[in-house]
Amino acid sequence: MAELFSDEWMKNFKEEWNKEPDIRDKLTELGFDSTICYGYKDEDDPRGVLVVEKGECVNAGSWNNEPPNWDLRADPKDWTKWLEKGIGMTGLGMAYTTGKLKFKVGDYKAMIKDPRMAGPFVKSFGVMGKVKTD
Predict the structure, then answer these.
(1) Tens-place pLDDT, residues 31-75
(2) Other C-beta atoms within 10 Å of 124: how many?
(3) Does residue 48 lie within any of the structural domains?
(4) DSSP E strand stretches across the chain
(5) What contacts 103, CB < 8 A, 6 or more positions away?
(6) Is residue 2 situated within a structural domain?
(7) Whole-angstrom distance, CA of residue 81 vs CA of residue 55
(8) How many domains, in total, are found in the chain?
(9) Residue 44, domain CATH
């Protein structure tokens, strides 16, 4: 087990991401390239990063000043809840509108309006839950 968003955790998340066809294959079809960062709301910098090329996660680990296309932040208790219980489209919308999930970088509204992007995004939370966390 590893601490949430640690280098080890992010590398395990990468492996789970690439095993999930509803994420990898759907984003490959879109030619999705992105640097996605994750962290906590009360911190200036993200903790972990995924680098995605054509839907496949090609690099992951501790954040090392990579400029993000997406930077998702929440309180540790909220991340833990979503990893344990998952989050659907409705829960995701509520998390965003109540401020529990912040997009420090990235356009949530544009992404969620595109079902080709929204599905894999929601699915990524389920994949996070497969990673063993301290």
Answers:
(1) 999 999 999 999 999 999 999 999 999 999 999 999 999 999 999
(2) 21
(3) yes
(4) 34-40, 48-53, 56-62, 70-74, 102-105
(5) 70, 71, 72, 73, 96
(6) no
(7) 26
(8) 1
(9) 3.30.1050.10
